[in-house]
Amino acid sequence: MSKRSHSHSPLSSLLRTRATVVAVSLGASALLGTGVAVAAETSASKSTKLTGAAASIEAQAKAQLKAADQLAAAAKKAAAAKKAAAAKKAKAAKKAPAWSDPVDKYTLTASYGKGGSMWASKHSGQDFAVPVGTPVESVGAGTVVKSGGNGAGDGPAYGNAVVIKHSDGRYSQYAHLSKINVSTGQKVKAGQRIALSGNTGNSSGPHLHFEIRTTPNYGSSINPVAFLRSVGVSL
Predict the structure, then answer these.
(1) Are 107 and 126 in contact (CB under 8 A)?
(2) Which letter does DSSP use for residue 62 in this model?
(3) Angle at 191 between CA 187 and CA 193, to 5 degrees
(4) Using CA atoms, how far apart are residues 78 and 72, in angstroms rounded to an integer?
(5) Of these residues, 123, 166, 176, 207, which one is catalytic?
(6) If we measure between CA atoms, which residue out of 110, 102, 103, 116 comes closest to residue 205?
(7) What is the value of pTM for the model shown?
(8) Cα–Cα distance measured from residue 184 to residue 190, given in angstroms and rounded to the nearest whole number
(9) Which of 73, 108, 152, 220 fits as disulfide partner to 213, beta carbons 3.0 to 4.6 Å?
(10) What are the residue ranges in the chain where pLDDT is below 50?
(11) Residue 212's beta-bridge partner residues?
(12) What are phi and psi of 137, to 5 degrees?
């Protein structure tokens, strides 16, 4: 029996070699494509993270800027309110009179120096006819030096009375009061309520008896209307 010999032709070997190269090339391409895809995905992930961090930082910056603006606005508002309050206080102080009427609504009746059976000599003050219970106010800033019944020590004819010493050395006296709201030693302001008018003591009807004196005691009175007009109070 004859044996067949197997021989490989050059053409067959060449075809096999080309097929191997093509297969290897295709595998390498597949691997390269996978690597590129993975690299692209990693890069995109990093890019997303960086974009998110930047957005977070920007949001924080905006929030801080907004908070700073709100604080600045609040500080500006507080400063404006403080300035307005100071201006209002200054305006009120400027308008506040150094001297004022002892009562707001009244009718002038018995005047200073008037004679008659009602007084031992002549009338020592100015009468302001007002209803009982009318607020009586200090005509100027000062200190209460006398207050109480029996004319605050000047005699029962005055009824309940108050005497106030002022910074210019003058004294104001308020008599025939129904109620006294201040006490000796107390400091008062111009226009501050010190009592309520009445009809106590030697009085022919409800009114306020008002005097300006050079001392705290009876017998040192001067014309109260002339004095008040001299300090800018119109009666």
Answers:
(1) no
(2) H
(3) 70
(4) 10
(5) 207
(6) 110
(7) 0.61
(8) 17
(9) 220
(10) 1-8, 14-15, 17-32, 36, 38
(11) 172, 222
(12) -120, 150
